[in-house]
Every structure is written in structure tokens, then in C-alpha cells.
Amino acid sequence: MDVNYWNEFADEYDEHVIDAFTYGRSKTVGQQVKRFASMEKDVADFGCGPGKMLPYLSEKFRMVYGYDFSDKLLDSARKRCVDLKNVHIEQADLSLPVDHLPLVDVIVSLNAVLMPDPELRTNFLRGMASRLKPGGHLIMNVPSAESLLYGYFREIEWNRRDGHSLTEAEKLVEPHCIISPEQTSRGVFIRGTEPTKHYLREELIVLAREEMKLETLDVIKMEYDWKTEMEDDSTPDWMGEPYPWDWILVARKN
Ligand SMILES: C[S@@+](CC[C@H](N)C(=O)[O-])C[C@H]1O[C@@H](n2cnc3c(N)ncnc32)[C@H](O)[C@@H]1O
After folding, report:
1. Which of 11, 40, 116, 158 is most buried, by CB atoms within 10 Å?
2. CA distance 89 to 72
3. Is 29 helix (H, G, I), strand (E, B) or coil?
4. Do the Cβ atoms of 244 and 229 come closer than 8 Å?
């Protein structure tokens, strides 16, 4: 999932990516942003991609910075924000040192810290936290490891309701996302075609404290509909709550 991957993916992005801001149930991302929004504060979107959230942030903050390393996705973001005077979009590899980026009051990052490489991932997390002003807030959305396993549980239930015995129902589920025991122990699963880091709730709390030096305020479920999660329109109507989810870490720099 390097810059070439994201560049090649840019033309199909809007069609294929279920982004948290647009598709999350109950507008959870927006609700968290509103908690800390003010026209006297500046915000940055780390890994903004095609910038779907930037117009929303532009209405709620004084200055909005959008960073990403994909020039193609940033082209889409620039087109989207062409008339927005308070949005500044800049190319940056956020796994490299980011000391040159301005300090801000709020940082939002939606499904950007997905890289399986632990060094690149930790650099991204530390760099991002370093750009928060004291008292500033981070809102970071990432895939949930728990939710991925829970999805398999629900698939078994689906097979049972289709008339299979429990043993048959379990056997019918093919765990396509699981790469190997080693990768599973690291929270890395295939999503689409790519190895993708998934996080445990407790892991996020430790990462906030140990790597980012932030105080966790909340770890919130950002729910999706089953139809978007399973990419299968035949998902039965009974498959309701609890819905699949990403985690949103909300943390403060003290
Ligand atoms: C799944 S997309 C999410 C984009 C956007 N936040 C959204 O929700 O639609 C992940 C984004 O992270 C960006 N990204 C991944 N690694 C990066 C890095 N090291 N530096 C900058 N951007 C990165 C990718 O280019 C891509 O735009």
C-alpha cells in the first residue's frame, strides 16, 4: 500500500472506497469533529486522500490542512476544494519527519494508518501527534480487528439460518482476510487485495499513551451497515445490531 498503489487507485476511489466520513452510520465522524470544532481553531486531515471531508472541515474551522502522499488523490482533493479559501492541501509522506508542518488544534485521520510495516506506522502515529498543540485533540479512525472476527461469526449465523448445521455453517465460511498466524497476531489482514493493519481497542489505548503521548478520552465504535461491510447486497435484513465497526480514538495532548 505504497504511494503507487494509492495513485493507481485514484480514478476508482469514489466508486470503490467505503470511506468512514460518507458511509459511517449515525454520522459518527462528524459528531466527533463537532465536539472540538471552532472558527478559532485550525485542523489538519492526515491522509486526506481525495479530500471528501475537507469541505465539511472548512465550514467548521478557521484553517484546514489536508496532507497525503498521493499526488493523484491530492488532485481530486484540490478540485473538490477549489473555491474554499481556508483549505491548504500539501503533499507529504507522513511516515517521514513532519516537523515542517504547522501545529494545529485538531487532527483528523480517517483510515490512513493502515500500513502493515510497524516502523512506517509508528512514525506516522508519532509524527501526527507531534503536530498537535498542547490541549489539542486527535480523532483517528482505524479498522477494528474485533469487528473483522465478529463478521465471520455473523457469516456462520447466516449459513445456519440458511439451513446448515452449526458444524457445516462454520466450515462454509472461508476466512479470506486471514493471511497467516503471524500476520493475524500483528492485526494484519487482507482487505480487498492489500494487507491492512487492524487495531484492537486496548491496543489503541496503549499506542496513544506510549507512542503518541496522548491521553485517551474515548474509543468509540464507528458503525457501518452490513451491506457496505460485506459488499453483498443480498445481506439479509435480520443481520442488524450490533453492526460492524471501525474504531475512533479520541485523544488529547496534555
Ligand atoms: C483508505 S485511504 C483514506 C483516505 C481518506 N482519509 C478517506 O477517508 O477517504 C488512505 C489514505 O492514506 C494515504 N496514506 C497512506 N500512507 C501515507 C503516508 N505515509 N503519507 C501520506 N499519506 C498516506 C493514502 O494515500 C490514502 O489517501
Report:
1. 158
2. 12
3. helix
4. yes
Measure CA of the first residue to CA of the last residue in the chain; give whole Å.
Answer: 33
> Is residue 75 in contact with ligand 1, taking CB distance under 6 Å?
no
Taking 50 as the pLDDT cut, the residues of the chain under it are none
Instruction: Return the DSSP state at 199.
Output: B
What pLDDT score does 11 carry?
79
Nearest residue (by CA) to ligand 1, atom 27, is 49
Q: Which amino acid appears at position 31 of this protein?
A: Q
Residue carrying C-alpha cell 457496505 = 228
Q: For residues 11 and 108, what is the distance between their CA atoms, to the nearest angstrom?
A: 24
CA distance 243 to 150: 9
Residue 77 Cβ inside 6 Å of ligand 1? The answer reads: no
Which numeric CATH code is attached to 3-143+198-252? Answer: 3.40.50.150
- Closest alpha carbon to 46 in 80, 78, 12, 92: 92
pLDDT at res. 230: 77
The model scores a pTM over 0.70: yes
The domain locations on the chain are: 3-143+198-252
- Protein residue closest via CA to atom 16 of ligand 1: 112
Instruction: Return mean pLDDT, the chain.
Output: 94
Q: What is the pLDDT of residue 232?
A: 66
Write the pLDDT tens digit of every residue in 127-166.
999 999 999 999 999 999 999 999 999 999 999 999 999 9
Q: Among 70, 90, 93, 126, which residue has the most ligand 1 atoms within 8 Å of its CB, making it the best to mutate? A: 70
Contact 32/53 with Cβ under 8 angstroms? no
